[in-house]
Amino acid sequence: MTIRVAIQHKTTYEFDRFINVAPHVLRLQPAAHSRTKIHAYSLKVLPETHFINVQQDPFGNFQTRLVFPEKTNKLEFYVEVIADMTVINPFDFFVESYAEEYPFAYDKALKKELDPYLQVTESCPLLDKWLSTVDRKNTPINDFLVAINSRLAADIGYGIRLEPGVQTCEETLTLKKGSCRDTSWLLVQILRSLGLAARFASGYLVQLTSDVKALDGPSGPEEDFTDLHAWCEVFLPGAGWVGLDPTSGLFAGEGHIPLACTPEPASAAPITGLIDECECEFSYSNIVTRIHEDPRVTKPYAEGEWDTIKALGFAVDKQLEEGDVRLTMGGEPTFVSIDDMDSEQWNTGALGAEKLKLAKDLLIKMKQEFGANGLLHYGQGKWYPGEEVPRWALGCFWRTDGEALWNDPNYLARVDKDYKHTIKDAQAFGELLCKKLALDKQYLQSTYEDTLYYLWMEQSLPADADPTKADLKDDLERRRLAKLLSRGLSTTTGFVLPLEFDSVNNHWNSSLWPMRSDVITLIPGDSPMGYRLPLNSLPAQAEEDRIPERDPFDPRQPLANKKDNAVLDSVAKQHFAKKPAQPAPRQEKLAPQKTLKNVIRTTLCIEPRDGRLHVFMPPMTHLEHFVSILEQLEAVAKTLELPIVIEGYEPPKDPRLQKFLITPDPGVIEVNIHPAASWKELVHNTETLYRQAYLSRLGAEKFMLDGRHTGTGGGNHVTLGGRTPADSPLLRRPELLQSLVTFWQHHPGLSYLFSGMFIGPTSQAPRPDEGRDEALYEMEIAFQNMPEGFVEEPWLVDRLMRNLLVDITGNTHRSEFCIDKLYAAGSASGRQGLLEFRGFEMPPHPHMSLVQMLLLRCLVARFWKEPYKKPLVRWGTSLHDKFMLPHFVWQDVKEVVEDLQRHGFPFKLEWLAPFEEFRFPHYGRQQIDDMEIELRWAIEPWHVLGEEITGSGTARYVDSSVERLQVKLSGLTDGRYVLSCNGRRVPIRSTGRKGEYVGAVRYKAWAPPSALHPTLGTDTPLIFDLIDTWNGLSVGGCTYHVSHPGGRTYDNVPVNSNEAEARRVNRFWDHGFTQGALSPPPAFSALRSFYPNGDEPRAMAPPAEEPMNEYPHTLDLRKQYNVL
């Protein structure tokens, strides 16, 4: 975002006596061709008795001539420049086709005009030697200039030199050191010697400290900095003068403000003049001060403001504690790679090699922060149709009582390291584990791959294919076959050890698996063997033998410590001594449908894979059992000195265990962060997560091709609950859910200020009143039956709301308020007492995320004291009209903040300003006398289209080709002005403030083959006219382009926020209004079909008002209205 700065430059000469001062020439006024916007310039000169004239030199530079009629003992020049540091992309230019590659020759007429800038005035052996090493083969001109500039920056060191004048090229090359003016003059001579026109530039350099420190390379100055500087400019046909700064090796950007650009350094000197001979004391200073900063996501809050936010968080904590709310807050923030925003895995694909690598790195870093004595777990995540393999899930688990879940991390193997573990290591590990668990080692049973299946696969290959070889281009099945054939099909894959805990006798039981064949044959596949067990080949399990899930509401006792477990271990060893030496023989083949008791189906698996020993954990119902087996696994690993990878089923959900999970989602990495019970914990968790993600080269923001700044696209879902399901405030007082849903329904701004790009009835988190007109009617019936106060029936809230908080297809997960983990009767995993807010997009800064959380905490505390029970509002079409505009969203959120303030929560509206700038980026302003036109991006719902046949199957595309802009006008005289867009009248509505109006334009920005209206063309560019109806003239306007107005096409998304901002700025012109006198347009709409292109001539305005009954705040350029 734009930062306005003031440059204060002071130069002082103090003489030892009064002297005569000859006329002086100052070149301290920013040049007319400065690309950095200059708002103000001021010059103050001492002595005050002087004559001043401002003129231009032959090269168009401003120069101030000063005459001092009286003697003086002091000469002082004080300059102040106010400028906007709006990002400029130094590579945003075209060149003529003949100059796209170096070498090239200037056009004859152009060369004559550039003659002063082509004169080589210095030559020396060292310069000739330097030039002889320049590669003069055909090279893209940008690459050529970058190479020359960066090489010179590396060859010549920087040094401050206070002596007047410029070193010769020979001096600079000999010393290999020089000031900025010395290196720049050397570059001028180098470029001229290479046949390129170059000039010397003198000006101000402004460098502002970065909000975020760079991971690679320098981060820039530690403090804001400015000084006089020099650089070089080269002339490229089509592009004009392009700045090169050989001191840094970079191209000139918004921080380079030219004062004078000339063929020779002497004529660009900032101050020139003569004085009498005397003793002189010289001093100067350059200071840059930020005088205005738009809210920005890299630094959303000043330190003092952030301290106030944290103080409110602690105050809200106190209220929650006094009210016995027992609130915990967690979430599912998402991240993307900061280095790769173009590949499939960071856009639409769920899986990817780089994604897994970064997730593992983040897992290790977060374990050190949150669960140093915890367990790393590599499990299986979701498996969606169309995906070859299930998604992975990386987890870290640790005990809440402070006891270690895993003592020595050296025995947790790294999944990216080859330990050379073999099947013999797996067997030794399993046999020792049997001994530790007081089980006979014959319960450890070998498993094998399905030989017949893979032999059939081998025979199915083409005759010329080598079945033992495959590459990444081959499909998954082929690669799997090659790997197994190389290893050998008869080789043991791993071992299974069926396990079940006997809670009565406090020991582990096992059994043999009765199979029809003599071996246990795994199901073909790539997953760990624990997911490929032939469970269907086991005898049917009797109903009474099934172990039910543990009820999440069951009370839990504190976990045993290591001493207690040692006692249990001794008991198990006594039990082992009583065991027979041989287990019972295998059972005979069973008749169909016959059940067999005492066959344990849950099994621990030990498998060497990719040089690592993997231990697959079976599903368990009690955390105590999981902790017990984990201690034995660590003891075996330590005894055999075999690091292992723990995979398979996660520990059972239990409040005595904390965890975070890292999983893949389309285009993002999702982190299921553990819940926090206090504001202090929440701040620590959020700041730590963002910091460690950044150090793992993961970011919380993305950029679209046109430069639009967005979140990751994966959301930042927030969960509300309690330490245990029984503590959940939503189950204890169901009216809290009613209050939240009602308040959100009353304030659409809460839905749209924090949302992502995709909103509407088919989005991931639709509002209850989006797409289902009768939903509010049915919801009011449910609210009538909602009990007041505390309840003893935790299932009641689920029964009342389950079928209402859904999307239009009945999906409970795709809802703004998701309650599928609140108290779902179907499974224990659905009875967690959690409410999930799914409408939040990922904020790019941790403090913004925490402000979101604080807003929710304030609302929970407010509704806990005073439930919010009001009639629901039928917004109708205004939901996707009025509340799509940032002005009305902001006004609505203002009402929310005022409500909180009335109830004793001093939440400030300005804390949400970074969200407004992030969600509704500012595109440009145009000042016309005392009136202003401001353009901002507005929200546009996306529609899911009908099914289409694609190369990979049936697809339903989402139409994002339509966009919306908000236009805000201020300073208008009521009834005098009309705003038009492309010749049509924009419906502007008064904001309640005198002279201020707001409206919207909906237009088709792109023309993809699949769209809601594929036959309609685009409506861009958008030309806005402010029409004076009293005089029949357009008094001014502006133009907005959807793409680069010069026709540049971008192949990649912006690499950072600077490039993104430059792309956005380029699309707005503060000119382009309709010329000439205006006359009312004829009614051409009836003749539209007779025009060659199907469109009537654009009106010269003032256009007639068009009836827009359904969307009164929006002009839809796609639709033709009957003119009133």
UniProtKB/TrEMBL annotation:
Residues 172-248 form the Transglutaminase-like domain. It comes from the Bacteria. InterPro entries: Bac_transglu_N, DUF2126, Papain-like_cys_pep_sf, Transglutaminase-like. SUPFAM superfamilies: Cysteine proteinases. PANTHER family: BLR5614 PROTEIN-RELATED (PTHR33490), SLL1233 PROTEIN (PTHR33490:SF1). This is Uncharacterized protein (DUF2126 family). It comes from Marinomonas rhizomae.
